[in-house]
Structures are given as C-alpha cells and as structure tokens.
Design a protein that fits this description.
DNA-binding; about 40% helix; Jelly Rolls; four-stranded antiparallel sheet; alpha+beta; about 250 residues; Arc Repressor Mutant, subunit A; homodimer
DNA sequence: CGCGCTGTTGAAACTTGTCAAAGTTTGTGG
DNA sequence: CCACAAACTTTGACAAGTTTCAACAGCGCG
C-alpha cells in the first residue's frame, strides 16, 4: 500500500481513499461493518476527487456511474426544467451521499455543485452493488440511506406545501444547526455556504423574501445575521415559530 | 399450487400471489427476470391483501416489515406533523410500490390509505433483500425503483417550489394522464379518486384554489370537468400553460 | 481600489388564502 | 326507492402573504 503521506507528486485520481481511516464512519456507509468488511469497501471506493468552489461534481444528463460520499466540503444539487425554471433540491455536507438520483435512469437527473472547496470519495455503483450482494449489513445500510433520502424529500415537500416564508426559513436554519451539531460543530453559530438566492430556490421563495425573513428574525432577537454568518440566539423561539401554524 | 378460482371459502392471508401470472411485469419488480427467478420471487411475495376504500394499508409510526405492490386500486400517502399540519405526499396506482419510506427507520413515516377498493401484494422486506443478494437483476431493479422515487420527489419539489396554482394543476393532470396511459387506459378521460382537498394538499394549495383552477381550465376549453370525471380536451394547451413560466 | 455580485429595504401589484353561502352528490336508513 | 344528512364542490368578496420592480448599500475578488 502506498504511503499517502509521502511528499511526492500527487496523482489525484490514484490516491486511494481508506474508509478504514475515515472519521465519517457513522455518517457514511461503513456503519456497523466489521473491520474486514470495511477493508473490502476500501477496495471498492476507487478514488478521491477534489473540487474547487463552483465546480460541478456532475451535471444533469451525464452518464451515471458512481455515487459520491462527501469527505469534506459543501454541495448543492439542483434541477433544471426545459423552460428555464430551476430549483435547488438540497444542500449536502460532510458524510452525506450524492448521486442517488442517477441510479434510476443511469443518467444524473440533477447538477451537483461544490459551494466551497470540497473533497469526495467516488464509489463506482456497480462495485457497491456487488459488495452489497456479499455483505448483508452494507446492503441494508445502503437501502436505509436511500429510504432516508425519500423521507427527507417528504419533509421538504411538507415545508414547501404547508409552511409560510418565515416558517420555511426557521425550519431550514434548525435543520442546518442540527446537521452541524451532528458533525461536532456549534449548533448555534455557522457560516452559510449558499447565497440568499440559493436558499430561496430551495425554500420556494424569492431571495428578497429570504432576506426580509432574516431581517425579521434579527429584529425579534431570534438570530444575529451578518451576511453569511449566522448565530442562533433563541432556538426555542425558532421552533415555536414553526408550531404556530397558520390555521389548517 | 391451490386453484385460486375455485369457489371455496377464501382465507385472504393464505392466498398466494403469483408474480408469474401477474400482468404488471413491466410496472412492478419482475422486470427483466428469468422465468426461474420470477418463481423465486413468487415465494417471497407472501400474501395479497384487499382493502376497502378509506382503509389504511399502514400508518405512520407502525413497525415496517414489508413493502407493497399495488395489484389494483388507488392509494394516497400522507405525512402528519406534530402541530397538525398534514400533506399528501403522493398518489399511487396499479403496479407502483408503497412503503419504501419505512426502510429508513424501520417504522413507516407516512400513512397509506386506499382511495378505492384495492388489492396489494405484501413483500416482506427482508425476504426481498435476501433475494436481491442472489439475483443481481432484481437488486438493480429495486435500486432503480427507489431512485425513481427520489427523482419523482424532486419533481414534486419543483412543482411546489416554482409553479403557480394553474401550472401545478396542469402538471398534476398531465402526470395522471400519462400514468393512466401507461396502464392502457385513456389518456384523455379518467375519474379522479381523490377529493379537491386531497389534490390541494398534494399541490400545496387550498381546495378552493384547486376548484377555481378546474373551472378556469373548463372556461378555456382545456378540459371538461364534472365532479371527479375529467376529460382532457386540449393536451397541448395544458402543456403550454406550464411552459409560460411566470418570469424567473 | 473599483466593479460586480450579493444583500437589504420600500412600495405597489398580484396570487392565493380565508370566510361565507349556496349548490351538488353520495350514502344511509326508513 | 325516496328522503335526508353528510360530505364535497363551486363561487364571491375580501384579506393576507409573497413577488415584482427599483434603488441603494456592502463586501470581496481581481
């Protein structure tokens, strides 16, 4: 096995990822696998890839071959309609998977764009399927991950279908907070990697509406906003905001 | 093999389904399996279950054990928030699968309700996983089905996030039309199984708005509505309606 | 150091929701 | 088989929320 730490010219495509060394066990696929099984998975995860901010990991229409595990960084996925309409369908962070949408037609159905310099593990899908046939735990975990994505999408549908602007933004901030927390970051303070327009697109709102909601939250002492820097001052307040549903 | 047509007391739970006889090959799981493989699947699909209109196939919170293939009938799934908000997340028809959301937490995360008398095949999930480990084609097909669900959800997010009332309803009708067509029914004439309120819930609109949009489509000669009976008179018109996006 | 992208704020327009009333269909029990 | 109640649908008038358009401020990249 090559020594990855040696100071030598780096061939990006060749650097092997090692699930066994990765500190994302609980977030990514290797959950609950034996040491031996993780080593098999190592063989399947073919390469790391680095992306600069703004770079596409894949584009809608491209052939689907692999799914990607985010090692570090931050992504958005978005869908484009023929008529030019566009919507952000999700924001993904460390330990989350990208590309599941491509399995269905063997073509990616959305664009994945790095919102900051990022690094992903490439997992050739047919290898993953192969290994899933051998390792029951892996198979089941993968199914759970796909199912979780479906449940998550239902949550977004709920948000888009039943919540008003400020509720949507509160839900969004609370969701980010919770995901940062799960990764060991502060639940109350973080930088947004996306623009107001991208937030709006995700939440089904115009950027101005997002901006106004931020301002309103600030006036009410719920958060402190300074551009992309967010501090949540009153988590309970944000949560309450969401349970005051309009009527029915 | 028992003769299912014999006039004898029927024990619902015992009647075996036979994928091999089923005319839903292309819609359900057995796509592209060999004869032999389909027979293995037969063994896994444990029982049929009949539901009356209004009956729940499963409820949110119940333990997840099986997924269901709709043999005949029509369902809705909906999600309930603690605060009483509710949203229909989908309508499912013959040949489609129900229950994929439950894999993630081993609990169903939504309710599935029959909107007309219906019949489903119960597919114990661990059996399906087992068989997937043996039959590559089945495994891959199942992954595609899950992925297709994710892509479908993205479509709904798009609809909820970027379209206005009439566009949403047009998209909804076109989608139904297309799915009926795929099942050999008329593309232009069908009965809605759901109420205006359920349509509204799915589309993120109030029932009055749905009703008004129907009326407007009728005035414009795009469709003929009589309660739940819909005839599409001008498919192109409906499609055009959707490409006149608001602005950007 | 300035230009462009991003974000903020205001006022007016528009879309959808709310409330209310009346019409229609469906299902049930007499 | 009819009658009545309940559920569903339609329509109108008004209110509320969000978008649109516009102007300006701020930050950051080159």
């Amino acid at each position: 096995m090559p020594n990855r730490k040696a100071a030598q010219p780096i061939s990006l495509a060749v650097v092997k990822t090692a699930c066994s060394n990765c500190n994302l066990h609980e977030l990514c696929l290797p959950l609950g696998l034996s040491h031996e099984e993780v080593e098999k998975l190592d063989e399947v995860v073919s390469a790391r890839r680095r992306l600069k901010r703004g770079e596409h990991l894949y584009r809608a229409g491209e052939e689907f071959n692999s799914i990607y595990a985010i090692r570090s960084g931050f992504f958005k996925t978005d869908v484009l309609l023929e008529d030019g309409r566009e919507q952000v369908t999700g924001f993904q962070m460390t330990g989350e998977l990208l590309g599941l949408d491509g399995i269905s037609t063997e073509q990616h159905s959305c664009n994945a764009v790095a919102l900051e310099d990022s690094e992903v593990c490439t997992i050739p899908f047919s290898n993953l399927e192969g290994l899933s046939r051998e390792i029951k735990t892996l198979q089941h975990h993968f199914h759970k991950v796909m199912s979780r994505e479906i449940v998550r999408d239902h949550g977004v549908m709920m948000l888009l279908g039943t919540m008003r602007a400020e509720e949507r933004l509160a839900a969004f901030l609370l969701n980010l907070s919770q995901r940062f927390t799960a990764r060991g970051y502060s639940p109350a303070e973080f930088y947004l990697r996306m623009t107001r327009e991208e937030i709006g697109s995700y939440l089904g709102l115009k950027l101005e509406t997002v901006s106004r909601a931020f301002s309103r939250f600030q006036e009410e002492g719920l958060i402190a906003v300074q551009q992309k820097h967010i501090r949540i001052l009153n988590i309970t307040g944000l949560k309450q905001l969401m349970s005051h549903h309009p009527r029915n």
